[in-house]
Amino acid sequence: MATFIAIVQSDGDGGYTASFPDFPGCAAAAPTLDRVIAQAREALLLHIERLLEANQRIAHPTAAGAIERGDALLLAEPPIAGPPRRMRPAKDGSRHRMARRCSISPTRWN
Predict the structure, then answer these.
(1) The CATH number of the domain where 90 resides is what?
(2) Is the C or the N end of the chain the one with fewer CB within 10 Å?
(3) 74 near 51, Cβ under 8 Å?
(4) Would you call 10 helix, strand, or coil by DSSP?
């Protein structure tokens, strides 16, 4: 399974942000660490879904040791064992092809 690392930082107002070095522009914000990681998972899955729908390749994940940490509070690995809540199967059954390309098991999808 692919593991994409999120950089989690304080937003300066008591909340947190998470961003993905492998996907510039893919980010999330929330008031707690648990919530920002959950939001980051949703953002990541939606971003991957959009890339695949546009027939764009998904890059190999950058190893945690190669990521510049800067002022990060932590590096997180949001679990991607299933699709975002809003993902619907395509009429042509491409959901399973999408899952294989993302290394996500389609059998866990509802």
Answers:
(1) 3.30.160.250
(2) C
(3) no
(4) strand
Question: Is 1 a member of any domain?
Answer: no
Task: Decide if 86 is inside a domain.
Answer: yes
Of residues 79, 86, 76, 1, the one with CA closest to residue 41 = 79
12-36: burial string, b at 16+ Cβ within 10 Å, e else: eeeebbbbbbbbeebbbbbeebeeb
Q: Identify whether 74 is part of a domain.
A: yes
Task: Determine contact, residues 22/59, Cβ cutoff 8 Å.
Answer: yes
Reported pTM: 0.71
Terminal CA-to-CA distance of the chain, rounded, Å?
19
Work out the pLDDT band at 58, boundaries 50, 70, 90.
confident
